[in-house]
Fold this protein.
Amino acid sequence: MTKRPLMRRTLIAGALLLLVNVLLILATFGPSPQPAYANGPDLWLPTPVGQRWQILQGFQCGSHVGTQSRSLDLINLDGSTSGAPVRAAADGSTFVWEGSTGTLIIAHGGGYYTMYTHLRQVITTRRGLPVQRGDVIGQAGSVGTGVPHLHFTYFYAPDASAYNRTSLELNFGDGYNLTDTSGCNQHRGNILVARDEPDTIPPDVHFRSDAQPETWYCEDMRVDFDIEDDRRVEGFSQAFDRDPGGDTPEFEGDTGYVQISWEGDGTRTLYVRAWDVSGQQTLKTFGPIGYDATPPTFTDAEPLPKRTYPAGETLKLTWNAASDGTGSGIAGYKLYLGSDPQGTSDWFSDQPHVKVEGLEPGTYLLRGQALDRSCHASEWVTLQQIIISDSADSDESVPTETESAPASTPIATPEATATTAAPSATVESTATTAAPSATVEATTPVPESPESPVEATATTPPANTAKTSR
């Protein structure tokens, strides 16, 4: 009979002990985070304006657990951490000072607080001193720890004593949104730079390249770009011939590059859209710039056209125009008129026809090489065979000036005048390989000899505004 009251007292004592332990656990670790805290203050970084401070320890790791789970440990990269000014992150008033750890808590109203720990000096030790955002409230130090750093926490506590705390995510007006994505030491290594005003300046994009806009290139060229911002660059997106758009950047960082060969032959305009940490955006373009890696080609005539003309006539020799595909386009033709099946020369015409006069009786070959507007040339090909007869008979298939010929058939038509072809704008050249008296009309100077073709792929056609680069 005497054991029952003792047993009841033991059970009651055990229940009370369990309740105390639960309360202690809740006090230490706090309740589960609430989904949103919409009425909190606008936070700004507590570090000096313009200085780079790095996150030494981030969320959810080491000592940052429980009510400290979303805390930051910050160190100064631009000078000494010890003695560096610490600023109020928002308007409020001093709430409590704990000297053993160098901890100052500022109340911001509505149950929201910011905590600054390891301070070696503090603005005041008393409660209720009003402070404004940006006011210096102390100096960073190593009180309570062996390494100088600023330990910063933003928390919510519904009770008047601020005992039942929940640490909150950090969204700074300086342009840094530090969310809790789970995992140990989140945001460690990030560099934060404090500002004293809202960000109203968008980022800027600067291009660097040996290539010049509105210019054709036959070798691959690289275009680099750097992004600058008065706060911090978030990232960028890039595309050829279109705004890459989007709500977020495709790439992180503040530098990038493209090769003009990535889209093949043609003209391209590079679009770069940049973001800063505040969401400000800038769109910049570079170009158009032309890339041509493919030499021009002739459409072979089968069989080789053969034409007969009477001696003493002025002739207009015409051939099928060459094609440059999607490249820079045909600049003109180097021509040879003579008896050598492999003959070449520097006579030039910017059109697929020339005038010839004074050819003596004999057999001649008209050969040509097409030049594009970058630096490529086709193979030399024989365009037609010409027979000059000392009799009055000629090729009856050749139309007169008043008749028309099929567009796809190279023809030779008598002309009324004759001029001279020249390898440059001022120097005339005589066709000695054909006949001493034969001359060819050139409408443009001979361009420089193109270099060997650059191997590459070809895709899109160029814009009409592109110039020639050699």
User: Anything to note?
Assistant: The first helix runs from residue 3 to 29. Helices lie at 3-29. The chain has a mean pLDDT of 80. Residues 296 and 378 are 5 Å apart (CA to CA).
